[in-house]
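Aim 2 progress update. The chain analyzed this quarter is reproduced below.
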Amino acid sequence: MSYNRLLYHIVFRTKHSLPAITEVHEKRLYSYIWGYVRNNDCVLHRIGGMPDHIHLLEQLPTTLAVSDFMRVLKTSTNKWLVERHDEFPLFDGWGKSYCAITCSYSERNRIVEYISNQKMHHRRFNFMEELQAIFQKNSIADSVDNFPRRTIV
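Predicted structure tokens:
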């Protein structure tokens, strides 16, 4: 028998980093995502975020590639959000990129706490500063400068 625990910290954002996820309605979106995660035999340890991005800490089965998981998640939530335009009027899609980092199970509580405290954390740091810190901590050679930035329209 094989044993594994594939735990990922995933961060993805709205298109152009628009603040489209209202605090009033974010729990409905998070519940929808939790249902998607559960229906794909994943374990969601924590979800949270800000109006312009979402963090997930989840465990994926070996049969599910992160890229497939994210492609279907973004497609299905896009449709769900568009159908609820009155609640999410600024939503115009998801950004093309996402960040997925494997985590040790021993880091789980620390990352759950980090995701739980996103609103407090972002009083001090904006999204790009947060992403740069995640890249540095995880030795990702690419720079946030290469991550698609918000376009001012």
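Confidence is low (pLDDT under 50) at residues 149-153. The helical segments are 26-39, 66-83, 108-116, 118-121, 127-137. These observations will guide the mutagenesis experiments scheduled for the next reporting period.
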